[in-house]
Amino acid sequence: MRKCVAGALVLSATLWFANPAAGQSGPNATDKEKEETQKLEPVKTTVTVTGTRTATDLDRSPVSTSLVTHDEMETRNVSQIDQVLQLIEGVNAFHTKGPNDTDFNIGLRGFAGRGDPARTLVLLDGQPINDSYYGTVNWTMLPVGEFERVEVARGPFSSLYGGNAMGGVINLITRRADHRELEIFGQYGSWDTTNYSVRYSDRFFRKLGVSLGYQRYQSGGYEEQAVLKTATTGTGAIPVTGVVTWPTSTGGVNYQIGMTGREWFNQHAYRARLEYTFSPQTFASVQFMHQTRGGGFNAYDTFLRSAAGAPVDNGLVSFVDPSGVTRILSVTPANFLSSPTGATTYTYQAQVLHTFNSQWNLRILGGVNLSPNWWYTTPAANATLTSGGGSYTPQVTRSHYGNIQVGWNPRPRHQFIFGTETRHDAAGIQVVTVPSYTSHDNGYPTTSQAGGQAINQAVYVQDQVLVTERLNIVAGARYDYWKTYDGLNQVSATTPPTNYPDHGSNAATAKLASSYMGPAGLQFRASVGNAFR
Fold first, then answer.
1. DSSP-assigned letter for residue 388
2. Are strands 360-379 and 471-491 parallel, antiparallel or unpaired?
3. Cβ contacts of 27-33, under 8 Å, gap ≥ 24
């Protein structure tokens, strides 16, 4: 077991420049100018909480911050959360299977997004929801209609949020139950695509708020994927036609022999929230989110045709490429098959906000993210569209999170916060050999498994002073204690561990060395006006 201690310090200063002549109503101003000045309405400001962990006007945030409100989402008629995020500059949603794919990674300012999603921290009302294994997020569990706004803070945030926020932070703020309301929404499209949701909220006795939401999304029209093969020169195979030639980025050639079937997707998401205002000084809320989803593929399409015009999807075949050279390749039905997948997730959260007086306030936040089964199956080489062996890979993740933050406002323009947070993660993954890849059952021999646990404990402070209307200084520091333990790597096991994913002792297991992260360095940020926003 290894331990890690990391620290971070950041100092930020932001200047706002205004035209000193604007709105002038001094002794030299005319009566007409004074009258026009008095008619001007106060400028409306938008408050964000992600960039500084406190309520801050958007135009005075010391970091590059953007947001999308619930009204904007309705106006743009977005149906999935990635469509919301791509409205924001500097955000890239990378889809592995095309633009309609429900699984995607997020990159901020060039950090990750394609291969490593662990550099963007995603929060749900301040609670991290990146999973414990890959650091990904099950985006389909988040119904768009449940969000009041989405805040995105771009750039490194190690002084407030730790190393997972190197690219930035995305904070999904859910809607409160302010009044009685019933919303019903529905969409229908081609390829059996339906998207509908119901949300009800009410407030009782001016103290108790209740909101319930449900969303169903399904589609059979996600894009087919090209099936590519390499070929060699040779003869003696079944002559076929229909091969499509594609050049590669390295100067080589791939040969397309068909398309996978269209992907179908089916998802249910539920949300319940209770909130209670005990007094003008004390507010508490609890919420629960649950999601189930599944995905698979329809029948594939082979481009290969025999001399009689019959489709070919199995055997050693030959074809003549555009240069006139006869080439051969081996094809099986498994080449056209893709992996069915599914997931079940639960999110629990509770928080208490209390204001002691005009200077002191307290926030306590805790939650659990649980995914008891995030799985996919892989067809074996002898698999067909309806049967054949393969492997079933279930993944289990669990994350506990707690945060206590105290705020102190000694003066109207001075905000100081200090807090502590703890996150404990446990994760495990198995590969199970199954007689049929179309089923997912872990009652068969386990080929391999891996997993472990991690804990991160941190304390942070931040001091924010509005020196003048044009100068705001923010300084922050964070100290992290981090370790991983109970790492396990097991190959050729016959039975799964009884306490998976916590991993008990087993003669065939091998402990993994924990990774080590060196101490963080010094960060400095200064911006003038909006030059770096």
1. -
2. unpaired
3. none
Length of the chain: 533
* Contact criterion met (CB below 8 Å) for 300 and 338: no
The three-state (H, E, C) secondary structure of 152-218, written as one string? EEECCCCCCCCHHHCCEEEEEEECCCCCCEEEEEEEEECCCEEEEEEEEEEEECCCEEEEEEEEEEE
Q: What is the pLDDT of residues 334-370, one digit of tens each?
A: 999 988 888 899 999 999 999 999 899 999 999 999 9
pLDDT digits (tens, 9 = 90+) for 68-88: 777 787 777 777 777 777 777
| CA neighbor of 7 nearest in space, from 515, 481, 475, 455 | 481
Token pair listed for 324:
């006139």
- Would the pLDDT of 524 be above 70? no
Distance CA 399, CA 517 (A): 21
The CA distance from 64 to 45, in Å, is 16
Asked if the peptide bond before residue 280 counts as cis, ω within 30 degrees of 0, the response is no
- How many separate helices (H) and strands (E) can be counted in the chain? 3, 31
Q: DSSP string spanning 291-342?
A: EEEEEEE---EE--B-TTS-B--SEEEEEE-TTS-EEEEEE-GGGG----EE
- Contact assessment for residue 234 and residue 327, using Cβ atoms and an 8 Å cutoff: yes
DSSP H stretches of helix in 336-457:
none
Residue spans of beta strands (DSSP E) within 142-180: 147-154, 168-174
Residue 434: Cβ within 10 Å count: 20
Confidence of residue 94 (pLDDT cuts 50, 70, 90): low
H-helix or E-strand containing 75?
helix 70-76
List the beta strands (DSSP E) in 412-470: 414-434, 446-468
Task: Please tell me the predicted confidence (pLDDT) of residue 167.
Answer: 74
Q: Which residue has tokens 């108790």?
A: 208
Q: Which two tokens stand for residue 187?
A: 């969409």
CA distance 270 to 287: 11
112: left (phi over 0), alpha (psi -120 to 50) or beta: left
Rounded average pLDDT over 137-141: 72
SS3 32: helix
